[in-house]
Amino acid sequence: GRNINIYYATQVSSSPPTFAIFSNEPSKIHFSYQRYLTNSIREVFGFKEVQEVINSYYKTPEQVLKKFGII
54, 10 in Cβ contact below 8 A? Predict the structure, then answer.
C-alpha cells in the first residue's frame, strides 16, 4: 500500500488544548501511532492532565473548518 504521510499539526483550540493532524490517509493511521503522537504532544508541551489532546485526523483544512462550523 501507500505510505502514510503526516503533513503538519496545528493547535485548533486552547481551552482545552486541542490539535488537528493533517495526513494523506488519516483513516489509515494506526491507533498505536495516534496514541504515540498524543503522548508526545502531552510530554513536549506539558499537557499531562489533558484527556484528549488530538481532536481528529484530517486530509484537508476544509474538513476542520466544516467540523468547527466555520464554513
Answer: no
Strands 6-14, 54-58: pairing kind: unpaired
pTM exceeds 0.70, yes or no: yes
In tens, the pLDDT along 13-35 reads 888 888 888 898 888 889 999 89
The sign of the CA dihedral 35, 39, 40, 41 is positive
Grade residue 52 by pLDDT with cuts at 50, 70 and 90.
Answer: confident
3-state secondary structure of 65: helix
The β-bridge relationship of strands 6-14 and 17-23 is antiparallel
Type of residue at 23: S
Dig out the grid coordinates for 71 from the structure: 464554513
